[in-house]
Structures are given as structure tokens and as C-alpha cells.
Write a structure and sequence with these properties.
11 helices, eight-stranded parallel beta barrel, 14% strand, globular, 8 strands, alpha/beta, 262 residues, binds phosphoenolpyruvate
Length: 262
């Protein structure tokens, strides 16, 4: 039984006051409704607002985890503009995204760099969400499973068995991110089942059955339930809809309900 996990990736949005307000609204409802008992929840503010959001989450305990959108794989040194795993931990983050499609396709990160980032996060004790997913051209060419398999195998090379409890995969078809287009629940389930088969071949049945695979790509409160009802979909990674408290909480509630129904 996998507990669903919903992450809110705020990307490069909000200001300090808006970040505090959003975190406070989320924490109030999650605590009042005990949602973290049914669903793990994390929010990923821009680096510079992590301390402000940490203050809110400390004042209003709710079980919401604090995350970062990226990290640099080295421990310290001449890496202008970058942030290490140790710095994230020092600022109160417990989870980090790696390989988000905007890092792969806008910034140009390679599978090899993403693997170094994932291992650095896990080695430092962070939980890591490794994001994978095919572009529209790759899907149209029938290469969805092949691309996801390559990104999984490359991204997870060298990850140790005892680190898998802190690993989550986010399957996010690039063509569905921020576009309002979704994979159908059936197409998403197919891709998730294939990801789980790859995880089985990498780590064995028991580990693969316990690793959560989130879906990401234009998830909203109105479409979350049908996606999360799929057997291999374990919650979601949410971009645009995570910036509105009501929408994000609707998605969290759909995930919590899915865990009771499965
Ligand atoms: C994302 O950025 O991971 C994402 C899924 O974005 P959106 O929900 O806006 O498609």
C-alpha cells in the first residue's frame, strides 16, 4: 500500500508575502482536516523564499514538507548561483526535485547531471523526486516508454537500495506540463506501469512496489480523482494549480480519498 504524495512546484512565482500567505492557507486546512494522515504533501517554493515558508510551517504544524526545486551536486565551492544539498538541509528543506522538464528542456540538463543531483540529494539525506517524461515528438514517434526507461535508468544509476525509501518518481509528459492538456488516465496508467516495470528490473519487486510514482501535467482539482484512481498513480506533482490554495487543496483531498478507495 503506497501512501499518495502530492507536491506543489511553485516554480519562479510569488513574492515573499504571497509565499507566506499560500503556505499558511495550506497548512491551516491540512492540519484542520488531518490530510497528511492520508497523503504526503510537500511544497517547493523558489530557493529565496524557503526560509519564509519554513517560518510559516513551523508556526502552523501540519505535516506539510518543505522542498526545493533543484540543487547542485557538489558540496561547496566556486559554483556561482548554485545551492548545495547541505545548504537546503540547513534551511529546513527535506525534499528536492531533480530532472524537472524545465531543467531538462529549457536549461539543458543532461541525464548524467540529473543523476549526479539525485545521488547528491539522497547521499545528503534528502528525499528526492526524480522527474521524467517524453516530449510530444517522442510520444508521436511511439518512443514514450523508451524515453522514460532511459531517463529512469540513467537518473537512478548508482542509487543504493537503502536510499529507495526516500525516492519518488514523477512521470510528467512534457507536452502536458503547463499546457492544460492531460494524458488520459489510461495513457498515464500505461506509462506508470511501464515505469514500475523498469523499477522492478532495477531494484526488484518489493522495492518497485513501494516506490511512489506521481503523475504531473496540468493536474487540477477537477481531473485529479480520475488520474489518482489508477493503480500505479500515487498522487501528483502540481505546477500551476499549486499556486491557488483551493485548487491545490482540492487535489490533495482527491489524493487522500484515492488512498482510502484503493
Ligand atoms: C510541473 O511543473 O511539474 C507541472 C506538472 O506543471 P503543471 O501542473 O502546471 O502542468
Amino acid at each position: 500500500m503506497r501512501k499518495p504524495f502530492v507536491g506543489g512546484n511553485w516554480k519562479m512565482n510569488l513574492d515573499a508575502a504571497a509565499a507566506r500567505t499560500l503556505a499558511d492557507e495550506l497548512a491551516r486546512t491540512v492540519a484542520a482536516d488531518g490530510l497528511d494522515g492520508f497523503c504526503d504533501i510537500a511544497i517547493f517554493p523558489p530557493f529565496v523564499y524557503i526560509p519564509a515558508v519554513l517560518g510559516v510551517l513551523r508556526d502552523r504544524p501540519s505535516g506539510i514538507m518543505l522542498g526545493a526545486q533543484d540543487l547542485w551536486p557538489g558540496p561547496a565551492g566556486a559554483f556561482t548561483g548554485e545551492v548545495s544539498a547541505a545548504m537546503l538541509i540547513d534551511c529546513g528543506a527535506t525534499v528536492v526535485l531533480t530532472g524537472h522538464s524545465e531543467r531538462r528542456h529549457v536549461i539543458g540538463e543532461s541525464d548524467e547531471l540529473i543523476n549526479r543531483k539525485a545521488r547528491a540529494g539522497l547521499d545528503a539525506g534528502l528525499s528526492v523526486i526524480l522527474c521524467i517524461g517524453e516530449t510530444l515528438d517522442q510520444r508521436t514517434a511511439g518512443r514514450t516508454n523508451q524515453v522514460n526507461e532511459r531517463q529512469l535508468r540513467a537518473g537512478l544509476a548508482g542509487v543504493k537500495p537503502d536510499q529507495l525509501v526516500r525516492l519518488t518518481i514523477a512521470y510528467e509528459p512534457v507536452w502536458a506540463i503547463g499546457t492544460g492538456k492531460n494524458a488520459t488516465p489510461a495513457d498515464a496508467q500505461d506509462a506508470h506501469a511501464h515505469c514500475r516495470a523498469v523499477l522492478t528490473s532495477l531494484f526488484g519487486n518489493a522495492a518497485a512496489a513501494s516506490i511512489r510514482v506521481q503523475y504531473g501535467g496540468s493536474v487540477k482539482a477537477s481531473n485529479a480523482a480520475e488520474l489518482f484512481a489508477q493503480p500505479d498513480i500515487d498522487g501528483g506533482l502540481i505546477g500551476g494549480a499549486s499556486l491557488k490554495a483551493d485548487e491545490f487543496l482540492g487535489i490533495v483531498k482527491a489524493a487522500a480519498a484515492s488512498s482510502q478507495a484503493k
